[in-house]
Design a protein that fits this description.
The structure holds two protein chains of two kinds.
Chain A (H helix, E strand, L loop, with lengths): L7 H11 L1 E2 L8 H16 L4 H28 L8 E11 L2 E9 L1 H24 L6 H20 L3 H19 L6 H32 L4 H11 L4 H19 L6 H5 L5 H10 L4 H8 L1 H5 L2 H24 L3 H21 L5 H28 L17 H15 L5 H13 L6 H28 L16 H23 L2 H9 L14 H25 L11 H7 L4 H20 L13 H14 L6 H23 L1
Parallel strand pairs in A: 1-2
Antiparallel strand pairs in A: 2-3
Chain B lengths: L2 H5 L13 H23 L2 H30 L1 E3 L4 E3 L1 H21 L22 H9 L5 H14 L6 H19 L6 H33 L4 H7 L7 H19 L7 H8 L2 H27 L3 H24 L4 H20 L4 H27 E3 L2 E2 L9 H4 L1 H15 L5 H16 L1 H31 L8 E2 L4 H19 L2 H9 L6
Antiparallel strand pairs in B: 1-2, 3-4, 3-5
Helix pairs in contact in B: 2-3, 2-6, 3-4, 4-6, 4-12, 4-15, 4-20, 6-7, 6-12, 7-8, 7-12, 8-10, 8-11, 9-12, 10-12, 11-12, 11-14, 12-14, 12-15, 13-14, 13-19, 14-15, 14-18, 14-19, 15-17, 15-18, 15-20, 15-21, 17-19, 17-20, 18-19, 18-20
The chains are: A mainly alpha, B mainly alpha.
């Protein structure tokens, strides 16, 4: 393990001095987390009396967090840009020997942005769920989990140390697990929850190791401390920073469903639709992007790790788009699209200072339009007997006017229709991808541009198949518009999908983020390898092509009710590029081989485990357990052997 | 002048050793309560015996704890000519033993509305609820478990406060003997219980012999049994290094047996499974605390100077303990055996903290033991409540769907398992963090390697615990119906304390960590 010739205490002290202690409203910023957490505890502990009013309490508390966040924002805008970041120490958390860590909150431009996104979209989805879950017997529990999620997510984005962030990180994982498996009487749903949980564990393992590596390298795990230490150490700690960067990337891949840990997101759609909208579209899955941007001083000095982030983003955004073209399940198509859009954000985050602010910008606008479309999908399912197969929809625009209109806004926003939200944010990423030298701008730039066209195709396909073309409903379908508690949040999100990008762009959102993300002003010095009008024009052209193709195939032409066999690419994409088979091949098969090898002739066969690693452990465990045969003479022999080995070791050391 | 005069008369100035009664007052109280318990057993009328025994034992424990809580600073000192050393760590460990002992006692006293303690048999050969048992109950009683427990607790209090190896050995035997007997007293699955007790006794004697042999070798090396003297001799006495290293390692064998470290762990699953469940909980928590207290004193006071001789061996033992404990827990189908292997793995984690050889390590070990001890008593307390046809439903498959039948109980168990797995915001996370941080900071490359092994092992154990959580909440109940008994106020308190510490030590660990750190200075 490399240790640095740094004077760590001074580095840490300097870092703490850089962020002003909290004043004013920031002093009660802990309410952000405490309100929804109290809601979750209340709803889980007090049961019977809250069956009816519990959901409303949860919704009110979530809005309460939003109000706190909004006041924080107003106060922050009132201060000068240098003094906007504030630090609030809550209590002394881990005073272990010479190492001491306080639990605290870092309230700066980045965290406030996330706080507002989470509480606003989250609260809207609470409202939507009041209607969507109205008939579910367990809705008290559902709202408790939703509140728990909001609390954990807020903790994640306001934590002042990576360790506290990890607490929130695990918390959102837990809430996500509970909510995916909410309808767990259905075994595939429960196994989807398990799959998400396992894929996330792999990522979490990476984050855990990253935190340990930070501690080993810099002696601190606070965010400001690591920032300072990484900047101070610079390239002299390049190797360790690269290792930390890769480990953080592994964490980000797990949580944000990036290649190669993306396979869980599609299955996670088993959860109730509001959950998919909140957790698996707008907030939790973007935590990986937050992590990379938050840790940008690490990536600034670890170009290899940053390049890896970009490559992972590029692979995922392409894969997600292709998978999106082949799915007939409306929620899984949206999930694939989420994967692809987060791929855009990751790619931007990997580009360095040019891209951090754009990644966050796209993250915010995407949070709105994707959540809006998920809620729209939920509304469609609500009217169509909870079915998700788009081939049996078609022509719904006449029956569900509000859903159609809001979905239209979301669709136009995501394909990057000029002057809607997605146009501003995604276009920026494509431009940023064209900046650089050598092969990179061409590969990344062209990829993002081509996939923008692909995005237009699959999103139009989804939109047309659902709302336009012939009615392919089943006989007993009676589509109807959803109640106001569902449509109002959809309308609000639709307004955001249309206007938010422009408003943020005009309001100087990117400059506002600059103190945290290291300044996108640097972008001015880097010209893209193609002129900007050419990039914008080319992108729009590809988008138009995509929409046109989808129109010809899925609106004008008849859509068969059963899916055609399709080409090999369609088949591969429909099966998520055989990711489950790859997992099987990479984890399960070698795991089994390991068991076979380790246990020579294994005739008993090993229990059907959930994965190969589990099987290997179980196999080893069963073998080892045979030593535990119940004969006291064998136990004594084991002890004696131990003693003999110990003494032999002494003898060898001594002589 | 006769030759005799040269030798001189036997010294007339016999100086009795100074006794600081305040320092040993808690131990005296517990010993007194145990002796009163014996008298109660002999003379109290049968009807009043249970109440009297329980009251005497509980009051004794609480009074002893109150003395420590109120007078701790004044109690610190070396007394009885160095045989007993009452210092910060000793007091903290005694306090923990007393509180956990009280929780364990509350579970042992659980009657579920019956006449005597539910878990214990008055006669090893009679079937529960049979006429023979009724007869045995009229003739004999089961309340002798209370004085037995008190004697064991006396040994456990003396163990971490022993200033020399002989006292330590006496303490070891005082705490072990009653446990052997308690193990044999299970009312149900009596053969298993008696077999477990015999195994525990045989293997325990075996390990005691190693301890004694090690003590003899160290005496040969240092010329003293006093730990402080041994510590001073290390580095000044030369040419007898073989005695030192061999003696140290044999002593470790005796103590590692008690904490259940690999390869001296084989008794753990059988004994944990066979012993009456409240006794298992008591043993898992208190024995571990006491034995780690003694191990800490032995390592930090006596042998720290010769760490190069034995460090490697203990590193390997710690690594093996974590790996074997966690891997073996995967294939267990009995909840008590599973918890037994989990306790083996936990012993490994604690060893990692101990091997930091730094005050941070002492504080981390203390914190870990506090968080693990209360939680494990509560976990066994919950096992006690889940019944199938009157007998404890210990097969894991019987726990399927428990979340639907008894949501509060299942949620409590879930919380404890999360704590064992080390999920953030539970005490287990903070405890693991503390031991690993201490090891990384002070044990060099070995600390890092052990930490990596530890994190991997906890991932494996997390799988095991989550499997149970999933089973409780996401599986259909199957097979014979399972009942959940309602605990009495005492039992509920013991379980509640375990749940509370799991949460409180996870969210606000700072006060206990600070206490553990401030009380981490050994005297000698």
């Amino acid at each position: 393990m490399t240790t640095l010739p740094l004077s760590l205490p001074t580095a840490v002290a300097a870092a703490d001095a850089a962020v002003a202690p909290a004043q004013g409203m920031a002093g009660v910023a802990w309410l952000l987390v405490a309100l929804p957490l109290a809601g979750a505890a209340l709803l889980l502990l007090v049961r019977r009396p809250l069956e009816r009013v519990g959901p409303i309490i949860a919704t009110v508390l979530s809005w309460g967090s939003f109000v706190v966040g909004a006041i924080l924002l107003v106060e922050m805008i009132g201060r000068s840009p240098e003094a906007r970041a504030q630090h609030l120490t809550l209590f002394s958390w881990l005073p272990v020997g010479t190492f001491s860590l306080d639990a605290g909150m870092l309230i700066d431009q980045l965290s406030v942005t996330f706080v507002l996104l989470i509480t606003f979209v989250g609260s809207l989805i609470h409202v939507y769920s009041l209607g969507y879950m109205a008939h579910d017997p367990d809705r008290r529990k559902f709202f408790a989990f939703l509140n728990l999620f909001v609390a954990a997510m807020l903790l994640l984005v306001t934590a002042d140390s990576y360790l506290l962030l990890y607490v929130g990180w695990e918390g959102v994982g837990l809430a996500s697990y509970l909510l995916i498996g909410f309808w767990n009487w259905n075994p595939p749903y429960a196994s989807a929850a398990n799959k998400a949980f396992i894929a996330n564990r792999i990522g979490d393992f990476g984050l855990g190791l990253a935190i340990m590596a930070m501690f080993a390298t810099f002696g601190t795990v606070t965010i400001t401390g690591v920032d300072r230490a990484a900047q101070a150490a610079g390239d002299q700690a390049g190797t360790m920073l690269t290792v930390i960067g890769f480990l953080l990337l592994l964490g980000a891949c797990g949580k944000s469903a990036q290649f190669p840990l993306q396979s869980w997101l599609g299955d996670a759609m088993a959860g109730p639709t509001p959950v998919s909208a909140l957790i698996h579209a707008a907030t939790m899955v973007t935590a990986g992007v937050y992590l990379v941007v938050r840790a940008h001083p690490v990536y600034d000095h670890a170009p290899v790790a940053a390049l890896a982030v970009t490559i992972v983003g590029a692979i995922t955004l392409t894969m997600g788009a292709i998978i999106g073209c082949a799915k007939d399940d409306i929620k899984k198509a949206l999930a694939a699209s989420t994967m692809s859009q987060i791929g855009y954000m990751m790619l931007a985050a990997g580009l360095g200072p040019v891209g951090y602010a754009f990644a966050i910008f796209h993250l915010v606008t995407h949070g709105f339009f994707k959540a809006g479309m998920f809620l729209g999908a939920g509304s469609v399912m609500h009217g169509m007997g909870d079915r998700v197969d788009m081939r049996t929809f078609g022509g719904l625009s006449g029956k569900m006017k509000i859903t159609w209109a809001t979905f239209l806004c979301g669709w136009l926003a995501i394909i990057g229709f000029p002057f809607l939200s997605g146009f501003f944010s995604k276009d920026k990423i494509i431009e940023a991808a064209f900046v650089g030298e050598g092969w990179r701008p061409w590969v990344f730039g062209l990829t993002t541009m081509l996939v923008a066209g692909l995005t237009a195709f699959y999103m139009s396909r989804l939109f047309f198949m659902t709302f336009h073309g012939k009615r392919r409903w089943l006989e007993d379908d009676h589509p109807h518009e959803s109640p106001a508690s569902m449509t109002v949040p959809m309308i609000i999100l639709a307004v955001g999908s249309v206007a938010l990008g422009g408003v943020l762009q005009a309001g100087g959102f990117l400059d506002w983020l600059a103190p945290v993300t290291g300044g996108h002003a640097g972008a001015a010095h880097h010209e893209p390898v193609l002129p900007i009008p050419v990039i914008t024009g080319g992108t729009l052209l590809l988008v138009a092509l995509g929409v046109g193709l989808a129109w010809a195939r899925y609106w004008r032409a008849d859509v068969p009710v059963t899916a055609p066999a399709g080409s090999w690419l369609t088949r591969a994409a429909a099966r998520d590029f055989y990711q489950d088979d790859v997992n099987h091949g990479l984890l399960v098969v070698p795991g089994n081989a390991l068991v076979e090898a380790a246990t020579l002739a294994d005739d008993s066969g090993v229990d059907q485990g959930t994965d190969g690693v589990g099987r290997a452990v179980l196999g080893a465990s069963t073998r080892l357990a045979r030593l535990q045969n119940g004969f006291v003479r064998s136990y004594a022999l084991t002890m004696l052997l131990g003693v003999v080995l110990v003494l032999a070791a002494v003898w060898m050391v001594q002589s | 002048m006769s030759p005799l005069a040269l030798i001189g008369p036997p010294s007339a100035t016999f100086t009795p050793s100074e006794v600081s009664y305040l320092s040993i007052l808690p131990m005296l109280i517990v010993a007194g309560a145990a002796l009163i318990g014996v008298l109660v057993e002999a003379f109290a009328p049968r009807a009043a015996r249970f109440t009297a025994q329980f009251a005497v034992a509980m009051l004794g424990l609480l009074a002893a704890f109150a003395v420590i809580a109120m007078r701790a600073p004044a109690m610190i000192g070396v007394t009885l000519s160095g045989a007993v050393v009452v210092d910060g760590p000793a007091l903290v460990f005694q306090g923990m033993v007393l509180l956990m002992g009280a929780a364990g006692l509350a579970l042992m006293a659980e009657r579920f509305g019956g006449r005597g303690p539910d878990a214990f048999t008055p006669s090893g050969s009679s079937v529960p609820g049979s006429q023979a048992e009724g007869l045995a109950e009229r003739l004999g009683t089961t309340t002798e478990v209370f004085p037995l427990t008190m004697f064991a607790l006396l040994g456990m209090m003396l163990f971490p406060a022993s200033g020399d190896l002989l006292t330590m050995f006496v303490a070891l035997e005082v705490l072990s003997m009653p446990l052997y007997v308690l193990t044999a007293l299970a009312r149900r699955r009596r053969l298993l219980s008696q077999e477990a007790a015999l195994k525990y006794f045989l293997l325990g004697s075996f390990s005691s012999a190693f301890f004694l042999f090690g003590a003899a070798l160290l005496y040969g090396y240092a010329g003293s049994l006093n730990l402080g003297e041994i510590g001073r001799a290390v580095g000044t006495v030369s040419g007898r290094g073989g005695l030192l290293a061999a003696g140290a390692l044999l002593l470790f064998v005796g103590l590692l047996f008690k904490v259940g470290a690999v390869p001296f762990h084989s008794w753990t699953p059988d004994v944990y499974q066979g012993a009456p469940t409240p006794v298992t909980g008591f043993m898992a928590a208190c024995t571990k605390v006491a034995a780690f207290g003694a191990l800490l004193r032995l390592v930090y006071v006596g042998l720290a100077g010769s760490r190069w001789d034995w460090e490697l061996v203990l590193w390997i033992v710690a690594g093996l303990t974590m790996v074997v404990g966690s891997v073996l827990s995967v294939s267990q189908t009995d909840i008590k055996r599973l918890l037994a292997y989990s306790s083996v793995a936990h012993a490994g984690f604690i060893l990692v903290g101990l091997l930091a050889i730094d005050r941070a390590g002492i504080a981390a070990v203390t914190f870990y033991l506090a968080s693990y001890g209360f939680a494990t008593i509560a976990a066994f307390g919950i096992v006690l409540l889940v019944r199938a046809r009157g007998s404890e439903a210990t097969h894991i498959s019987q726990w399927a769907g428990l979340g639907r039948r008894a949501p509060v109980l299942a949620a409590g168990m879930g919380l404890l398992l999360m704590g064992f797995a080390g999920i953030p915001l539970t005490s287990g996370f903070t405890a693991k963090f503390a031991v690993f941080a201490a090891a990384v900071a002070h044990a060099g490359a070995a600390g890092v390697v052990l930490t990596v092994i530890g994190v991997l092992s906890s991932a494996v154990t997390a799988y095991v615990y989550f499997r149970i959580v999933v089973l409780m909440f996401f599986s259909e109940p199957g097979g014979a119906p399972v009942d959940v008994l309602r605990p009495s106020a005492g039992g509920a308190t013991a379980i509640g304390v375990g749940l509370l510490t799991t949460v409180v030590l996870g969210v606000f660990p700072a006060p206990l960590l600070a206490l553990a750190a401030s009380a981490s200075q050994f005297l000698w």
